[in-house]
Amino acid sequence: MKIIIAGGGTGGHIYPAISIAQALKKSNPSTQIIFVGTAQGLEKKIIPQAGYDLRLIQSGKLNYQGQFFQKIKSVFKIPLGIIQSVIILIKERPDFVIGVGGYASAPMTLAAALIRVKTAIWEPNAHPGMANRILSRYVDKTYLVFADAVKFLKSKNNITLGMPLRDDIENYSAELSTAKNNFTLLCFGGSQGSMFLNDCLSDFVLNNPQLVEKMHIIHQTGSKDFERIKTKYDNHARVEVHEYIFNMPKYYSQADMLFCRGGASTLAEAAVYGVVPLVVPLPAADDHQQRNAEALVNQNAGFMFLQNTFDSEQFKNKIAEMIKHPEVLQEMSDRLKQMVQKGAARKIAEDIIASVGPSKKESTL
What we know:
By secondary structure, this protein is an alpha/beta fold. It has helices spanning about 10-25, 45-50, 70-90, 105-115, 130-135, 165-170, 195-205, 210, 225-235, 250, 265-275, 290-295, 310-325, 325-340, 345-355, and strands at about 1-5, 30-35, 55, 95-100, 120-125, 140-145, 160, 185-190, 215-220, 240, 255-260, 275-280, 305.
């Protein structure tokens, strides 16, 4: 059995894709996995390190706000990417193609659908982006994280299975949790960090010494902003500063709340641990992160602050309220955990294998 996984760009697309690949290999060790990405995305580094074959094509972004010429330039790359995808498909003859979002997803998945290869897209957001809204008309099925996404799609078959998570995140041990002497706030602005979150949190720490005295802050800054924020904190006694956190289960299990962006992977990981998120969605053309955050807020399982109206006083008051009323925070944490659908990567892998057909099944389960 040969599967192509197309897409990438950021960790929010790449790591769930790797989780699906691992589940496919676990179900059927003889499966050959080929990733298709672009040279601009993080997949160029991460996928080969994970031990998978990566092919590169040309592609571009459609959702540019106020950048007409960039959008035109991107649009012209997509036909070339489709041609490159067809060449890969003819050469490799895959049994199934799944697009996981990111630049390479659309050309490869569309090319596969047009030449009648079995196809699917994976949609992580409550409000799908433009590419997946278009692709949903052509693919055989769509795997969803949020059921709310169905109303935006035209797929023949929509299956809500949750977020494919790495084994170390999903199957964490409760023994990792340590006794907490202080309310702990974790800040994680995605794999590359967020300058906006970095400034908001560091300003909060420096401007509210009495409240912060009751807290422990774990702050991942990202590599670009690490030295600046580290200098700004000046070895603050209540702050633990990291350029990058590799052992996320350790820090999730220490945290009471998470100050973060609204990426679907980030919110799903927080839900596994019941770490109540304070979300500042990344502004984007389709506001998909805002829709992700709203899905939690509507269940009273998280808080949201919009970047263009962010109020530091409201942010401070919300944290102070949760410190004062831990029982309210615990109720929110419990609701958040109830939203988790575990085993998504395995379920997607099983469905792909079933879609390929009996002649390709050599499951070791």
